[in-house]
Write a structure and sequence with these properties.
Keywords: Acyltransferase, Transferase. By secondary structure, the chain is an alpha+beta fold. Helices cover 35% and strands 33% of the residues.
Length: 146
C-alpha cells in the first residue's frame, strides 16, 4: 500500500537518504550529512514543501517544491524542483502519486500553476510527466495549470 504525505522534521533522516540518492542519480557525490542540513534548513524556514511516499512503511520516494510567484496573476506558483523514486519502487505508480500530490498541494495553496525542469534526455521522466497531464513548454520545462 502506498502512503503519500507531507514530510515533517521527524522525517528528516529518511528524506535525507532519498535526497542523497536523488543527488547521486544526477552525478553528485554522496553526502548525507549535508543533505540532512540542507533539508533541515528548508523545513525549519518553511522554504519548501516536501512530500514523501511510503510503501509498507518504507520511504520510497519524494518530491520537493519551492514557492515562486506569478506577478501577472498575483498568485503563488510552485517549482517542482526534485522528484525521486527508488529504483525498486519505479513503475509501480509512486511517481504518479507524488505528481498528483504535488498538484493537490498546489490547488490547496491556491497556486496558479506548477512548473518543473528535467533533463532533455530523461525520456522516462518525460513520459511520466506527459502521461500525468503536464504540458511541455520547451526542451527542458513542463508546466501544469491549476
Amino acid at each position: 500500500m502506498v502512503t503519500i504525505r507531507p514530510a515533517t522534521i521527524n522525517d528528516l533522516e529518511v528524506v535525507a537518504d532519498l535526497f542523497d540518492q536523488y543527488r547521486i542519480f544526477y552525478k553528485q557525490t554522496s553526502d548525507v550529512t549535508k543533505a540532512k542540513e540542507f533539508l533541515k534548513e528548508r523545513i525549519e524556514k518553511n522554504e519548501s514543501a516536501i512530500i514523501i511516499a511510503f510503501v509498507n512503511d518504507e520511504a520510497v520516494g519524494f518530491t520537493q517544491l519551492y514557492p515562486i510567484f506569478s506577478s501577472v496573476s498575483m498568485r503563488r506558483a510552485w517549482l517542482l524542483n526534485d522528484l525521486f523514486v527508488k529504483p525498486s519502487a519505479r513503475k509501480t505508480g509512486v511517481g504518479n502519486k507524488l505528481l498528483n500530490a504535488a498538484k493537490d498541494f498546489g490547488a490547496e495553496t491556491n497556486a496558479k500553476w506548477l512548473i518543473l525542469e528535467t533533463s532533455e534526455d530523461n525520456f522516462t521522466a518525460q513520459s511520466v510527466y506527459e502521461g500525468n497531464g503536464w504540458q511541455k513548454s520547451s526542451s527542458f520545462f513542463y508546466h501544469f495549470d491549476l
